[in-house]
Amino acid sequence: MLLVIALIMMFVSITGIAYYFIDGKNKVRIIPRLKGGENKSQNLLNRLMPLIKKVSAVVKIISADSYDGIKNKAAEKLAEAGNPGNLNAEDFISIKIIAGLAVPLIVTAIIGKISIVWLLMSFVAGYLYPELWLKDVIRKRQRLFLNDLPYAIDLLTLCVEVGLDFTAGVNKVVSKSKPGYLTAEFSRFLNELRIGKSRKEALEDMGKRVRINEFSYFVSALIQSDEMGTGIGRTLRIQSDELRKKLMLNLEKKAMEAPVKILLPLIGFIFPAIFIIIFGPIILTGMF
Predict the structure, then answer these.
(1) Could you give the CA distance from residue 285 to residue 288 in angstroms, rounded to a whole number?
(2) What separation, in Å, do the N-terminal and C-terminal C-alpha atoms of the chain show?
(3) Comparing C-alpha atoms, which of 275, 288, 257 is closest to residue 9?
(4) At what angle do helices 199-210 and 181-194 cross, to 10 degrees?
(5) Could you give the CA distance from residue 176 to residue 162 in angstroms, rounded to a whole number?
(6) What is the DSSP string of 28-70?
(7) Distance between CA atoms of 251 and 228, rounded to whole angstroms?
(8) Which of 43, 135, 159, 184 is the most exposed place for a label (fewest CB within 10 A)?
(9) Predicted TM-score of the model (pTM)
(10) What is the Cα–Cα distance from 125 to 266, expressed in whole angstroms?
């Protein structure tokens, strides 16, 4: 019996993993999964937007100093996440309040009568969930941003070295690159230049929105090169080489961490199934 259960568990686990990553045509579909999750989140936001705006109108009335600090932090995180759903700080705080009130009601409807402790715990869980969702959006955005950054810097370096100025080079990168978070930031940078911002101010604002160390170093080097009057093509070439070295070191670090991270699921899930398969028949033979 134990052997049968172990085999069923292994079959379900392997099938589930294969179904998640492989579609019917044997193609990896990790990115479509991510895009599907983003579309579902966007659809949910669109449906809840009327309620969010009503709560947001009430939230705007509050003018306490502590609330202003919370609102500023929410605005910074939303900017770092790329303003998903065009949410502002009041909208995001309203979502947290709605989730904090909805989760206790759902838990009460499912379980029935619950204690005040469970109500408080479910309220805290609902209130904090939007924060976790936003952190996940930021992590995905930063990962995709870093994936596109080396190619964009190489293309920008090539454009500057053949005679284009920096702004024209950025415009060329936006037109030649696939749509993504990086091209969206470069497009916003160009729009800010068109409305009258200086290049330094636009670069600083872009660095504050992205908040990735590798990109922050790149922006700082560009600002310093612009202020000192040094050749921006040479700066871009140096930054491109440095970025590739840092990304390679990060990949090597993650590769070295993989055996340690896989140890826990290996001990907790795979070893017990192997032991059951090996020793299960022996135990059953001895018992009967």
Answers:
(1) 5
(2) 13
(3) 275
(4) 150
(5) 16
(6) B-HHHHHHHHHHHHHHHHHHHHHHHHHHHHHHTT---HHHHHH
(7) 34
(8) 43
(9) 0.63
(10) 30
All domains in the chain, ordered by first residue: 144-249 (1.20.81)
Tell me the per-residue pLDDT of 121-168, one tens digit each, with 9 for 90 and over: 888 888 888 889 889 888 888 888 888 888 888 888 888 888 888 889
In sequence order, what are the beta bridge partners of 22? 28
Q: Supply φ then ψ for residue 162, to 5 degrees.
A: -90, 0
Measure the CA–CA gap between 172 and 181, rounded to whole angstroms. 16
Question: Taking a C-beta distance cutoff of 8 angstroms, is the pair 172, 155 a contact?
Answer: yes
Q: Which two tokens stand for residue 30?
A: 């990790």
Cα–Cα distance measured from residue 53 to residue 50, given in angstroms and rounded to the nearest whole number = 5
Q: Report the greatest alpha carbon distance in the chain.
A: 87
Place of tokens 């022996």: 282
